Each structure stands twice: as structure tokens, then as C-alpha cells.
Amino acid sequence: MNPWLALTPGDDPAERIRQVGRAHERFLAGDRRPEQPDRPGRMRSVVADSWARSAASIGADNTAPIDLSDDDLEAYRSGHPLAQVMPIFRDLLGGLAEDGEHILAVCDATGRLLWVEGRPATLRGAASMNFVPGARWDEAHAGTNAPGTALAVDHAIQIFATEHYSRPVQRWTCAAAPIHDPVSGRLLGAIDVTGGDHLANPHSLALVRATALAAEAYLGAAKPVSDRPAVAALGRDEAMIAVGGKRLRLGRRHSELLVLLTLHPEGRTGDQLGIDLYGDDVNPVTIRAELSRLRRILGPELLDSRPYRLRAEMDVDFVTVSRLLDAGRAAEALSAYPGVLLPASDAPGVARLRRRLDDRLRAAVLATGDRRLLQTWLGGPLGAEDLEMWEAYALLAPADPIAARRVAQLSDEYEICNVRATSP
């Protein structure tokens, strides 16, 4: 069974709506195992997981909040990278939007809808649940839905009728696919088609996925060609290096070594790299072997020895973020930051760099007092448990019920932790 498809061959859509609807009500009543509504395997685990994430932030009758409008919305979306590929979206999916039964929607990486297009009557129906440009449709604000969940799991997905967490959305079915920057791999947003139950078929999912791939291919061809190798290590466990028209994914240790080498253009000895990689538990033979394998992968034209150093100047994603912060350009730095540096790495040198970069970016965002930047941070990998940032955002957005609820939740959790820590 394909977990990303809502229905399997032979399913009765009406019966599935009833089954999942009953599971949804049981989930809201406290049953936290909705993946087994009537018989094992009938509830998709990807949907059950999404319900759990949604329930942590919103109620089942919530409506997505409108975050941007008018001139602010127009200015934001006109400068967004996905504006370049709107002609592709309209060419490949516009026919669906014109048939009167479907809506074409595009959101950014935070789930903020940028474009919502279709026939006026269909758009009016969608507007009743705030499926409009400028509204936030990530899971934390709108619950389980195709564009929001596609962003959360970074995969194309269908969400069918009662699979939606929010009751006002359950009369719709949607299919969405995430879109990435073709060079850095950074998540840019998602493309979505929303309509009736008939969308729950393999063709709609394949169509939005193909459209996302076409957009990524266009963005890749449109990027200026650089002779310099490019390294992407933010938001990924394994670094990616683009060199000579090829993209290479490195293993964990080689990713760590490459990151450490980019910090020291003057070069490092094997012992120095070993301490940054392993701490006090350095085995010189192991570090030499790892560097030898990395040199074979990159080639002697890129990696020198005695000392070990990179022979070519490189475009490095975390260095770009750091330079933007140096220049006081917090908004651009946050936009260029898809996630923490090599999150699975426990190498001391990488961990120090990761903490320093995250702390600098967080402080810069907080200092701006910009509601949209704070909101973007809170929607990222470091924001969910960040009480200080939630408190700052709540002051700037007093009408957002999610912010007030999250501040209360985190305050209670931290108070409990403090009590436990001070108990004898």
C-alpha cells in the first residue's frame, strides 16, 4: 500500500469517509491510536502522526489565521523564488483550476499561502475556511492538510476528506508536493490542488509531483552558473557538494570533515581535525584513513594534504548565513537557513559551530522585533520549544490564539521541569 495515497484500489470513498470520521472523533475523545479505526491498517500512520502534531497546537474547529494581506502580501510573494515558476504551475495545473471544481494553491516553506486560483464560486467556498492568499496553512495553524503536511514530512501526499484534522476542511480533498531549491535542497514551499473527493486517485498525486519537479528543474536552469563548488550542510544529516556539474552526497564523517575544513582555509593537521571530530578520543590512524577516503571522493584538485586544506574557494551555505548576520541582514540570513547544521553530528567542532550559528541567528531575529521573522523562526526546527520567542511573538500578535496557548503550555512544562530539578 502506498502510504502517500489516500485510497487503495477497491476502496469505497463514502465508507472510508465514515471510517476515518469515526477515528477522528475517537482521537478527539482521547484515543491516541487512530491508525486502527475499524480494523488494522485502515488508518494511514502518516495521517495519525499529523493529527498528533496538530492537536498539540490547535483545536479541531480552528480556522487558519490570515497572516499577510494587501501590500504586505504582494511585496512578499513578488520577491519569493516561487514567483518565477507560477507560469509553469498555471500551464500544468491551470486547466484543473479553470474547470470550476478545483483550486490551485502555492505556499511558502512556512505554509503561508501565496497564490490561490480557481473559479470565483469555488474560491468563495474555500474562503469560508480561510483558504486564501496570506493565510497560514502549516499544521500548527490549520491542522492536517495536504500542503501543510507535505511540508511537515517533505513528501508529496494526498489528504482525503475526514483525514483533515480541522472539521471545517473535511468536505475537501487535496494533493500537494513540496518544492526545493535545486542546488541547496532548501525547502521553498509546496504546490497544491484542492477539490472534491474525486481527487483521491493516483493521477492527482503524480500530477502535482511532476509539476513540482518541473518547477525545480526550471529553477535549476535559471540559476547563474558558478565555477566554484557549493556545499550544503544546513538542515541535512549528510552534506551535499556540487562540483563540476555533479552533486555528491557525503557520508556522515566525510560531511563533518568537509564542514571543519571550510572553517580553516589555511589548513589543519590530522591531529587538529581529529580533536574537532572525536574530541579526546583521537585515533590518528582512523582520521588519516577518513581523510584519505575523502580525498579520493573530492579529488586531489580539491583537497590537499600536509596540511589538509581545501584548494578551491567554495560557496558554503552556513558561511553565507554567517556573513549575512555579520552584515546585519537578519531577514536574508533566516531565509537562507533551512535548518541546523548537520543535526545528527556529535563531533565537538561541528557542535560548537552549530550552537554558535543558531545562537547568533536567534538573537538577530529576536532583536528585529519583526512579527513575520519571529513567526518564521517559530515554524522552524528550533522554534517549537522556544518560550522566549513565543512570548515575544505573542506580544506582537495578541490576536493569535495559538501563540497564547503555546506560551501557556511551555510555561507549565518548564515550571514542572524546574520543580523536578529542585526536588530532593
Q: Give me the strand/helix succession.
A: HHHHEEHHHEEEHEEEHHHEEEHHHHHH
CATH superfamily of the largest domain: GAF domain
State the low-pLDDT regions, or none. Answer: 37-41
Number of domains: 3
Q: Which percent range describes the beta-strand content?
A: 5-15%
CATH topology of the largest domain: Beta-Lactamase
Q: Pairing-aware structural class of the strands and helices?
A: alpha+beta
Shape: globular
Provide the residue-averaged pLDDT. 88
Give the strand order of the largest sheet, numbering strands 1, 2, ... along the chain.
2-1-5-4-3
The first-level CATH class name of the largest domain: Alpha Beta
The CATH architecture designation of the largest domain is: 2-Layer Sandwich
Helix residue percentage = 40-55%
Total helices: the number is: 17
Largest sheet features:
5 strands, antiparallel
Amino- and carboxy-terminal Cα gap: 52 Å
Radius of gyration: 23 Å
How many runs of DSSP E, i.e. beta strands?
11
Helix/strand layout:
Blueprint: H1 13-28, H2 45-55, H3 70-78, H4 86-98, E1 103-108, E2 113-117, H5 120-127, H6 139-142, H7 146-153, E3 157-160, E4 173-180, E5 187-195, H8 202-222, E6 230-232, E7 240-243, E8 246-249, H9 252-262, H10 270-278, H11 284-298, E9 303-304, E10 309-310, E11 315-316, H12 317-326, H13 330-335, H14 348-368, H15 371-378, H16 387-396, H17 401-422
Parallel strand pairs: 6-11
Antiparallel strand pairs: 1-2, 1-5, 3-4, 4-5, 6-7, 7-8, 9-10
Helix pairs in contact: 4-8, 9-11, 10-11, 12-14, 15-16, 16-17
Protein name: Transcriptional regulator
Domain GAF: 124-216
Pfam family, one: GAF
